[in-house]
TrEMBL record, chains A, B, C, D:
Descriptive protein name: ATP-dependent 6-phosphofructokinase
Gene for this chain: pfkA
Location (main, coarse): cytoplasm
GO terms for cellular component: 6-phosphofructokinase complex
Residues binding Mg(2+): 106
Source species: Parabacteroides acidifaciens
């Protein structure tokens, strides 16, 4: 039998749709396996400041369909210091919490890893981030919903772009990873995507213009990942206005609504599977691993691997986008 | 029997969801009544440049659910000149078009009015604008869809606002009319709305702050109509950041997606009723009138009235918003 | 100052989207006006069995966007008896509840009316029903959402109907009132609607067939209100299969999903306005009235009027549907 | 250089969301690679009856977001006979069509396989079916959209189920494959799923009842795959009503709307990738293969394998559902 009798659960970093489905599955699977569950509010911050409550199955009823996180989330500078982490550890001991399930992105798992090593404390992580930029899992919780949200927004903008023969630059999230911009462009039938993986290498906009971009079309849509290098949608649009003064150029920045919304089926199923797997992992004495999904099977990814490595985009998709939008 | 044997139909100005439903109803009702129909592309511009095609019932099949306008729309400086309007008139004569149905907002109807007077030519208008700012009709085609789009976006942003205890300023359309901002705020459970009708009178933000805005709440959402007076969401947020440095303030500008999307039931029904009524009006020798809806009955509103008068907001709704968001 | 210091609030009968927005507005407006609020679960049943809890503003946070009713609803045979109502009255006295706000349809208001008269007890009602069949209000809470849900379902079915050249009969709610079927048909571009108001008078299907229904079209959709007279969609489809064996006929019964879903902007605004108005009415010593909306203004409708009179459909809409679907 | 200079494209069998995205990608990729394209309407039936038109890039503009299939689809008994297939072959020759891209499910690929062998004719297939029951591909075009449609419907029904403390049996598609029912149940937080893979082995309902199904919950939802064995949702509900007369049991049959709707991002991306890959396959002299996706890579699956083998469900998901719905 596992030594884990009581788990704590928290969400950390940027919120992502599906986090509530994960909280629900972790809670219920823990209770199903005879553990008790403590919900920790506002991530590591609430752990330090003792925002911790008992969680029963009813606490997670009727939340699978909701965006955001009922446990809320917050940034926590204090947890980055040894003193802060000591305070966090003391809370866990006070509440009799034997292991922690942490749901979040890169920063959250980095914090989890340091803490786990410092105190030899069992933590398992769930990858919750719309950016899909964690290594070791084919997909992260929240990515599919954000992708569909982007697509639906672009569908709406296309209505008006087509009606007016306009050229739209639409900025989406993904400062370091082009998954949302590239796949969002394919899904919405956009003409091009400008993504960070490529903008380091070459000038995507110049290439678009050279290859006769927009010769045959009256209206066009380009998805642009937010970026200091390109200046995002605003920066790109400014350049185009100079080069093509005849174009009726517009900019739209989708912003925070990309984080919200009721999660898609894929995100809910993924979050539920990973939530159940997290408890299985603890029962199996696993620790310091992130749940991942590879080829539709759950895998355990060491925190160190998930954080350190970059997840590459599939470059074939650049061709797919180009060919399908002629 | 009516003298009108052939009508032309066009959409002009900013596109609005429901315009296609209107095009469908006008076309079918005209054909039902024995008229022939010409679709004119790109508004008054296409009328001048002769982008005119025959429309049968099939041309408007399967479009009721689509956003934008299949007839496209464009601004047209030339139509503002007597020479341009003469060219337009010549085209109508060449095609044997006896009357025009023009779907659009304030600018479109203004153009229609001048043209109708200059050439003693029968035109009927349909109010198509998301801003809902035409006098003489309780509601315009596109307003209900835009209102729902805004609400759905705010619902998504609330997910993340609540997860992070943030204060959001969300900018919506309506430079001269606060219908979208005020009703959008009530519908989405936002805490306040900053609207043009009031910002001329007093400083809504100062008042919000004085009355203890946001004392009891962790996260808040304020809808702000785009405005030169207030600076829109950006301008308001800058002021709040200075006054309340402790708040985690964010801005979101919804932008062009407010114009798109599949129309709601109300917009499709309204557009269909108005489209059928437009042909009834022509059969009844009406001209130079906009279709309006008042108390769920179709009315004819002279262009002059619809354009010149401001439609007031219902100020009771300001109280409704305040009371319901404590 | 009003004698009402504490109100009870309940939802009764079939649930309708927007009920939560109404609960939120009633609760907050009452608190804003210095009253205390008791939430009564499961309608009159919970009143009798004492499922009554204190409601603060937080109890109604973040519910405006949710379908169903957080207060739940139930049928209650006991409340139809004098003994049951006496028990209900005793509970109200025990809890110090001075007035009741009841949200529901015909049955709920009938119960409210009898109770109010029997015990000389102040009750105000809110019209909450997707069927839109209450007299004295242009529209009821839940109707607009149900109409949009129906339209979206028909939009989906049209995708497959068109792909297969099929004739679909789709059954919607409204046993006694054709609002959903008729307006749903116009909104979704359906070819016809079979509604109770007309099926008493004549054989709508026979007429459709006689007038050459479906001569010019490959696929068609007919909305049918549930009905004992016509047999609903199943009954109508059986007859068509016999008369037109060459048609590829399909039936779809939308069923309970018509009651659910996040409320539309119109329903949320209506529910919020009516909720605030209900407290205003109590402050103004009104009682035994239903909140109604007429010409965009709140009105008070005596229970007796709201219940006894039938709300007529606008028969012009039958022509609108016929003309727009040729 | 490839011998293929002109391709034909058709959709066959039940329509599925994403088919239009596939048509768009096939058409554009073919043109990009110098081929000409013929659109064949109504599947093999239209091939025989010569419903064949030239397709340019504009023919597939603005269709990626639409449900159904612009090429329509039909059953075709004649194509099951050698005579019918000979007629089909003659048409292909007349139009100079060198290869065929067929999008559809099991039946469509079976027909394609026989035809390809009989006439030594190059065909590539795309798996288009919401049931996800084709071997050799992790997922089929249309499945993700149908899964999300089911989930959204169950979300709506849960609103009313929860409000009324009811037990709902909801019937979904998948006569031979439980993917939609099982994953739909996990995604929507349903309590159980009754699926064909298991109903052959044992009585799932009896087991649910024995294991104390619904002891701790007021409302419950069970997804039931359509089935002759269990009688579908109706059959299961009848049995429950007898065993548990105290439950308030309701049935909902989702029906044809599961086939419709704008495709999700995953379906559009999958369809676009497979559409581009189909032309790549022809350029590479592949034939008689279905495009599949495995571990996010495109693979070629021989028709014989795709048709003959059953795709198994992941039985771990049964545990996931059970544990997460306690």
């Amino acid at each position: 039998m596992s030594a884990v009798k009581c788990i704590g659960i928290l969400t950390s970093g940027g919120d992502a749709p599906g986090m509530n489905a994960a909280i629900r599955a972790v809670t219920r699977s823990a209770i199903y396996n005879g553990m008790s569950v403590k919900g920790i509010y506002r991530g590591y911050k609430g752990l330090i400041t003792d925002e911790i409550v008992d969680f029963k199955t009813q606490n997670v009823s009727n939340i699978i369909q909701r965006g955001g996180t009922i446990l809320k989330t917050a940034r926590c500078e204090e947890f980055k210091t040894p003193e802060g982490r000591k305070l966090a550890y003391d809370r866990l001991m006070e509440h009799g919490i034997d292991a922690l399930v942490s749901i979040g992105g890169d920063g959250s798992l980095t914090g989890a890893r340091i803490f786990a090593q410092e105190f030899n404390y069992p933590i398992v992580g769930l990858p919750g981030t719309i950016d899909n930029d964690l290594f070791g899992t084919d997909v992260t919780i929240g990515y599919d919903t954000a992708l569909n949200t982007i697509m639906e927004c672009v569908d709406k903008i296309r209505d008006t772009a087509t009606s007016h023969d306009r050229l739209f630059f639409i900025e989406v999230m993904g400062r370091d990873a082009g998954f949302l911009a590239l796949n969002g462009a394919i899904a919405s039938g956009a003409e091009a995507a400008i993504i960070p993986e490529i903008s380091m290498e070459k000038d995507q906009l110049a290439e678009m213009i050279e290859t006769g971009f927009r010769k045959s079309k009256n209206s066009s849509i380009v998805l642009v990942a937010e970026s200091e290098v390109t200046g995002g949608a605003m920066g790109v649009a400014e350049r185009v206005k100079k080069e093509y003064p005849q174009f009726d150029v517009r900019v739209s920045i989708l912003g925070h609504l990309q984080r919200g919304g009721s999660p898609t089926a894929q995100d809910r199923i993924l979050a539920t599977r990973m939530g159940v797997a997290a408890i299985d992992a603890l029962l199996d004495d696993q620790r310091n691993v992130m749940m991942g999904i590879q080829n539709d099977e759950i895998v355990y990814v060491p925190f160190s691997k998930a954080i350190k490595n970059d997840k590459p985009i599939n470059r074939d998709l650049l061709d797919t986008l180009r060919v399908s939008s002629i």
